[in-house]
Design a protein that fits this description.
Layout (H helix, E strand, L loop, with lengths): L4 H7 L6 H7 L12 H22 L5 H11 L2 H10 L10 H5 L6 H19 L1 H15 L5 H4 L3 H13 L4 E8 L6 E8 L2 E8 L2 H20 L1
Length: 226
Amino acid sequence: MSDYSQLERCLGYQFKEKNLIIEALTHKSFKKPYNNERLEFLGDAVLNLIVGEYLYKKFPKSNEGELSKIRASLVNETGFTKLAKEINLGDYIYISSAEERNKGRTKASILSDAFEAIMGAIYLESGLEVLKPIILKLLEESYDKINLDVLFSDYKTALQEITQAKFASIPEYRIEGSYGPDHKKEFEVSIWIDGQTYGTAKGKSKKLAQQAVAKIAIDILKGEEK
């Protein structure tokens, strides 16, 4: 596991300082005097900036709200886990034997944190202009298409899996209203699970509003588990 050459090839980047990559790959469970949490903090901030700039240029006609939604769909635990798997990052992470038994190498939280840390480490060593093409290449290889419809497509499916396991029921989506002229209509949808509402969201179509509110419900349910 101490040979990172394949990981570096996947990234298209070679670390000058090997201690930096070791720190970025060290989960807190591994019980060393260092771990990847500080680099994860840095990586999160830099990823937000790079993805934000990328979307700003890619979608010149989208408003701030739309850009924020697309970025939120990419810059999160699910998005970073997807990118981490693209480079087989789980094979290289240092975790405790307990985490190993608990399949820690495939856990979304551990993978996404390590991905942020690796990106933070590259930024620290070589700066924004070196890191930017690495991230954008990974994004474009991991997603066939980057837009609201595609990125929101999995939230309803993911939520249904969660609610069937937790409540033995499926979510109910209720249209609360529609606003604006026909050419610029916006729909408001609420979500109900097991007789309880988990929020409302708006979208340019009923489908987008449902996907947005499904994401809200997922975040709430995951928060309850912590």
